[in-house]
Amino acid sequence: MVAGGEVPGRARPVGGAARDSGGGRAPAASPGLPASVRVGYGLGSLCTGTFATVPGLLLLYYLTNVMAVPAAAAGVALFLPKAWDVLINPVVGALSDRSRFRGGPRRPFLLAGACTLPPLFALIFAAPPLRGMAAAGYAALLFLLAATAYAVFQVPYVTMPAEMTDDTEERGRVLGWRVAFLGSAILLSGAVAPAIAHAGGRDVPSGYRLMGLAVAALLAAGMFGAWFATRRAPVVTRSTAEPSLRGQLAAARGNRPFLHLAGMWTAQALAVGVMLAGVQYFATYVLGSAGAVTPLFACMIGPLALVMPLWNRLARSRGVKSAQFWASSLFLTAAAALVATPWAGPWTAYGAVAAVGVAYGGLQLLPLRMLADNLAADAARTGRRRAATFTGLWTAAETLAFALGAGAFAAVLAVTGFRSSEAGHQAAQPGSALTGITLGMSLLPAALAAVSLWLLHRYEEHPAGAPSAPGAGPREGGHDRTDTPEDETDRAE
């Protein structure tokens, strides 16, 4: 759940990743990739991290507080394009898998996305002379087009490491650069974009226009950089398209532990999505400064790189499920503590959000390790390697959860009587709306974290009766294990 939309270290298989295959002898390892290819490929995550972060952080607030869009309409304008993302990904994946372009099966799609997403993103925040429902329609249309352009880039992009090399160590090095650029993009865009938008301390269209252009430039740098740098990347294998999302759902019904695990992941992604959509409102109306969103976001994302090794160590010593329990419990407690901010003061908010950031590091890492174990157990039980099927559902669930997160916070605003306003004329909010913002930022994500804990309790780490898969090796604690894409993630870290 790295700020909505990309699972680090794994090619996204929703409608277009490699088809699951059975076992067999692995081919000889391919030669190492040039450093320029490894680093240049990672540049693409400047796009994926930024586009996953900035709209979720600012777009809802921009619509309600600059473009005078009613909260309910603004929520719909954000939800529909992200729901479309789930449908368009299989189409892009299948087209990419079947392409026979001279530039390779993936890079022409990277170029098409690079040419279209940056200008579309800038147009979303161009603040045309429209207000109310007309502005909502404009934003929804541009956001849908931008989401389509993003899919054209992102789906082939995350498939490339598996096709550039068949050596797992080399693939781990490639993914290491991707994870590094991803974290940098989330922190940079999440901190700088609000600072540009609120320069001067007011919500005015010019600030958002400048922010849109700056973010578009960052997107273009990452996308064109990845396209150009991978021109020397070999293609050592080709993928074939997955049949359909319906086929993936049918396969998942036979893996009940996966259903509980994916449900837990969805609930916590929804909780994070709600907080991401609400943090700008919380800064403006509860802390009293629109600019406070930058330190709040830094408190939440800053600890990620520092605490991930600690969560990894806890998982090794106490078990992954136990570590996930403590990460979710810390998230629940810290989110609930935010409800005291109106009485306890802003430092309570900063401390609670920093604790959320510590928990968030575990919530990013530990579910992926549990997914790896579940994939190994499924392979042992069925004798089939179906990682693409289950990770496809995993990323689809995450995409929908982040879309619903913004919609859920918009629904809270609408129900509690939030008054939308035009730039330069901030409407006075009733007490019910201020209470709704506080509760939407605190108790709502805490409740969703409680749901994720219940689903975690029902998750079986190692279902009884699973036979050993051919070629499986020993797992920590004595259980059998087969290599999964997450092993490459661990090596990348």
From TrEMBL:
The chain crosses the membrane at residues 59-80, 108-127, 133-153, 174-196, 208-229, 258-283, 289-311, 323-341, 347-366, 387-413, 433-456. It holds the Pfam family MFS_2. Residues 15-30, 464-473 have a biased composition (Low complexity). Keywords: Membrane, Transmembrane, Transmembrane helix. SUPFAM superfamilies: MFS general substrate transporter. InterPro entries: MFS_2 (IPR039672), MFS_trans_sf (IPR036259). Residues 1-30, 463-493 are annotated as: Disordered. Signal peptide: none annotated. It comes from the Bacteria. This is MFS transporter. It comes from Streptomyces daqingensis.
